[in-house]
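Submission checklist for the structure archive. All mandatory fields must be present; incomplete records are returned to the submitter.

[x] Identifier: Lipid-A-disaccharide synthase
[x] Organism: Rhodanobacter caeni
[x] Residue count: 400
[x] Sequence attached
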Amino acid sequence: MNDTQPPTIALIAGEDSGDQLGADLIEALRRRYPQARFVGIGGARMQRQGFESWHDIRELSVMGFVEVLKHLPRLLRLRRTLVARLLQTRPDVVIGIDAPDFNLAVERRLKEAGLRTVHYVSPSVWAWREKRAANIGRSADRVLCLFPMEPAIYARHGVDARFVGHPLADRFPLVADRVAAREALQLPQEAPVLALLPGSRPSELSRLGQIFIDAAQRVTAVIPGLRVVIPAANPQVHGMLKTMLAKGARDESAPLLLDGQAHEAMMAADLVLLASGTATLEAMLAKRPMVVGYRVAPMSYRIARALNMLKTDIFTLPNILARAEGLPELPVPELMQDDCTAAKLADATLALFRDSERRGAVVAAFEHLHQALRGNDEKHAADRAAAAVAELLEHDHARA
């Protein structure tokens, strides 16, 4: 980058969450570099910010050992094509957004060729082999972390990592408005409400959907007047849920199926029953007590166990953050793999419904964790991330 030439910034995003992160980052970077060119792989949100996407973001939306293996030849072809075009374009910085299995390999090849690289969203080094941090440093000149405990892990391996805050912490108020959320969803203010989120991907829903719906039916049979709301992440998931729900009750006790509106559903609820993943962080930021269950594909689970890849005994983000912050108790019941049954999920949910003191303690813990994710200043996560990227650009400019 020089004084007259605006920077070219490449971003590579995989999945919907990466598209949102990328769009926010582009918006923040454009405030610094109004004439910058943004290129790479991104979705509709990034493109609305003036991003030039060379490939469809859905080409990277693959997860799990077995699932990735099925698509490996196509992913390798895509990686070769992308690397070649980036080497030809030679952007001032390349930012891989999440999707570590794909992006870190791309970043390493580009870093070896002399390009500046940033990895935005640290892989879960606290859960999947900490020594990966050193390998990530061979791919990325700088790692942008969403969680405050992550930079210290990288520092032990000599890797430049910055905590920029979590974007979701900026989107949720410190005190959620339950009344407004129920009005928006036309739910009665006095009724007990359970939000049910059994997964945002069809593959998750095929493993978890019926289990979670059966669990909610068990809870409904015990708690008078319970209303169940199910936000569907996308039209495909909505259709799958509609088919699953067609077998059940059609009276007032029938679950209310929503198009999106996950945040509203969580804030309207007294309790959330959900699949492990980013949604647990959203429920935490909504300050709603929750029960979490999850199952991965059996082969993926056996491979992970056989290779001793799991280095943690807890899996949900609120529990991991609570342990990192030194809180005395883990706030979220976790029912994983063989323990993720309708009966066990229902029992854990009913226990939490019946224990108001426990729910109060959980809300207090979530308030503490929300503040920790916001960082110590009033800036938003995207602005901190943009500042960390700009620092690399300006350093290179000053050195040139």
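[x] Structure attached
Curator remark: The first strand starts at residue 8 and ends at 13. The chain has a mean pLDDT of 88.
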